[in-house]
Amino acid sequence: MDFKEKILLEEIEKKWGKSKRIQSNENREAVLSHYLNNSKNGVSKFYKEDAIEYAKDILEFSYPNEKITNLVVEEAIQYGVFNTFEIPFPHTLSPKFKFIDLFAGIGGFRLAMQNVGGKCVFTSEWDKEAKRTYKANFGETPFGDITKEETKRYIPDGFDLLCAGFPCQAFSIAGRRGGFEDTRGTLFFDVAEIIKRKQPKAIFLENVKGLRNHNGGKTLATILNVLRNDLGYFVPEPEIINAKDFGVPQNRERIYIVGFRNDLGIEKFEYPKPTKMKIPFSEVKEKNVVPTKYYLSKQYLQTLYNHKARHESKGNGFGFAIIPDDGVSNAIVVGGMGRERNLVIDNRITDFTPTTHIKGEVNREGIRKMTPREWARLQGFPDNYLIPVADASAYKQFGNSVAVPAIQATAIEILKLIGIQ
Questions:
Q1: pTM for the whole thing?
Q2: Are 105 and 131 in contact (CB under 8 A)?
Q3: Contact residues for 328 (Cβ-Cβ < 8 A; gap 6+)
Q4: In the chain, what are the domains?
Q5: CA–CA separation, 421 vs 96, rounded Å?
Q6: How far apart are CA 204 and CA 359, in angstroms?
Q7: Strand pairing report for 202-208 and 161-164
Q8: pLDDT tens digits, residue range 249-299?
Q9: Distance between CA 11 and CA 136 in Å, rounded?
Q10: Structure confidence at residue 2 as a pLDDT band (50, 70, 90)
Q11: Cα 305 from Cα 298, distance rounded (Å)
Q12: What angle do CA 221, 223, 228 make, to 5 degrees?
């Protein structure tokens, strides 16, 4: 068998999809990709046994008449049989630090950390479409459900920084002390449990601004109590960081929580100061005419006008919003009026033929939705970031992502204190 002849990615994925045995464990592709991407940094030992088994399954399926031994598998890996496609954001060859990426989404944290010299040694994300986007850009399939022990057991030792944009779930703490045990049943508990087991030097958590006042402030108080008293980390008061202060034209406020292991002796932390550079929406607006499908129909636009008028008559400020070229967008969010709160005027359209199943004619006012690429830019993703999914998934993924420049600016301040930058 000539293993120097690489198997095309499409052929491998087609064969993986046909093998029921290979599909039995959602983490097997993640194990193999993590093994390949960590073969030279001492972390691969956490993935090697299962990665070899998975690779062997693939080769046995691909070459049923060949005798596939572990030695043959290792030779195949050495020759790069499974490294069959180029990615825009390969891992850092000479990393300054190691981090893990929990609730990874499409890799906003990872992109920021790689930009400052970090090497991701473990990542997890449960959404299949987000995993697809993550793999296309970083060449690594995230592990699945982090609440499962079978996923947690793959997390390596010895990483420096834990990153997590964890979802906020309700905490039930009535009549209790609000400690580690009180977070069971929430996704924060899984983050806390990993911190307790692995003891990274630092942690960096991100959540929606509303976490500060959730349940009358009790939820955040519980989180801080767990981090400070149960887990032994110095955690300064969380801060609300706005993406528009760090080089992207989006008014997006999120709460950042950082922490440092007590034995490091860190007693003070300052969040990054806002930059003086103000970026208008025109800087991220599409340079070319966008497809007609992004323009609203006359009928739908009238519905939005009516909706806004009804709310204004009641003294409410709800309704669609048009972002001027010299302005800053509202926060891009999933659901509700997420896209309608960020409409733009673009009169470059010349073909008004509907390209989707919209009812009625395309509006003549030049009003359109932002494109997924514009949303990507609003979150600080560079233009070589691949968007391999349909628009509906792309809007969801960028709407749920972190703002890369704000994360990166905060990471720099964290790394200074743990002696990495």
A1: 0.88
A2: no
A3: 244, 249, 250, 251, 280, 281
A4: 9-78 (no CATH), 97-276+401-417 (3.40.50.150), 287-370 (no CATH)
A5: 8
A6: 46
A7: parallel
A8: 999 999 999 999 999 999 999 999 999 889 999 999 999 999 999 999 999
A9: 16
A10: very low
A11: 10
A12: 90
Please name the residue that has the structure tokens 């034995």.
263
Label the pairing between strands 118-123 and 161-164: unpaired
Q: CA-CA-CA-CA torsion for 288, 290, 291, 293, nearest 10 degrees?
A: 180
Distance CA 181, CA 264 (A): 26
What residue type is assigned to position 228 of the chain? R
Instruction: Give the separation between CA 110 and CA 43, rounded to whole angstroms.
Output: 17
The catalytic residue among 22, 168, 321, 333 is 168
Phi, psi torsion values for 317, nearest 5 degrees? -105, 20
CB 218 within 8 A of CB 173: yes
CB 131 within 8 A of CB 53: no
SS3 (DSSP) at 360: coil
Long-range contacts of 166-171 (CB under 8 A, 24+ apart): 166/102, 166/103, 166/191, 166/205, 166/206, 166/207, 167/103, 168/207, 168/208, 168/210, 168/211, 168/214, 168/219, 170/215, 170/219, 171/215, 171/218, 171/219, 171/222
Residue type, 212: R
Distance separating alpha carbons of residues 359 and 361, to the nearest angstrom = 7
pLDDT score of 366: 95
First-to-last C-alpha distance (Å) of the chain: 47
Is 261:232 a contact under the CB 8 Å cutoff? yes
Quickly state the pLDDT bin for 58 (edges 50, 70, 90).
confident
Contact (CB, 8 A) for 391 and 372:
yes
Residue 33 in contact with residue 135, Cβ under 8 Å? yes
Look up 163 and say whether it is catalytic: no
- Helix-strand-coil split of the chain, %, nearest 5: 40, 15, 45
Left, alpha or beta for 117 (phi > 0: left; psi -120 to 50: alpha)?
left
> Which is it for the CA torsion 360, 366, 371, 376, positive or negative?
negative
CA distances from 330 to 132, 239, 300, 376 (A): 27, 20, 21, 14
Q: For residue 172, what are its two tokens?
A: 């039930």
Contact in structure between 195 and 262 (CB atoms under 8 Å): no
Give strand pairing partners of 83. Answer: none
